[in-house]
Write a structure and sequence with these properties.
The chain has about 280 residues and is an alpha+beta fold. The protein is about 20% helix and about 20% strand. The strands form two sheets. The protein has a six-stranded antiparallel sheet with strand order 1-7-4-9-3-2. Strands 6-5-8 form a three-stranded antiparallel sheet, with no helix packed on it. It starts with 6 loop residues before the first helix and ends in a 52-residue tail after the last helix.
Length: about 280
Amino acid sequence: MTYSKSAETITAEMVKTVADEGWSVVGVLDRRLARRLLRAVDEVAARTPDPGTEGQLHQLSGLAQHPDLSAVVDWPPLLALAVELLSPNIYINHSHLDVHPPHPPTGAHRWHRDNGLMGRDMRLLWRDQPRVTLKVAVYLTDVESPDDGALDVVPRSHLDTASRYPTEEQPDGVPILGPAGTVAVFDARLWHRRRDNLGTRIRRAMFMAYSYRWLTSRDIPGPSVTCLSAARVMPPPASPWSGDRGEAHRRPSRTGRPSGLRAADGGSEAGWPTPVRPRTGCRAR
């Protein structure tokens, strides 16, 4: 994707879009990376056959299933956006791989929000709940029409003041369309769903969630996830004996927003400690 504006400007505009609308398309991965991810998902699907699912796959702990899948986590435009919307103190706490062949209409609505238990436990209405998770969708095959199994979102529903129900149709739903390699993000509080795949091609996609590091993981981590979180996404852990390594060491950026980790070189901007490197012998299987 060719940009005519600076990366900082693009990120700031996307931050506002996600804050206001609840979602945004970030861009399209280069073909080499998109194909690498597609091959990895196909390998996972090939070794986990289940005749009862008719070729469908909804594999939880997705990043732990293949070492190549973590390559998208620190894609610079995506990581920069996640840092600005949350903070540098984040990691991937949930991921899944989806494979859905074409099938007849099911009539299923599938509307839902993520992190629902959090609001219930805190006894907060949706509009009062904080943003703690940024969900990411990566299309690995073309989704050219809503009937290709597109991800539907309801813009601005993360700011709802009235209740919605999963069995209701959402006339304001918007399908996210794009070629293979399309990367989109949405606030986990946003109402969303997967549409039926009524097209002609198998729909393959991967999803992951950037969340604050103090939010418990929903995934069963594998070696690749452990190495990834240490090397790419997470700043050094805070020590109760050495003081907070977060706010006390943060310096504002030129835009007035917190400076985050730079994905391009793996280092850190002024005021943030360099991310921890994997320990010796830490490697993906």
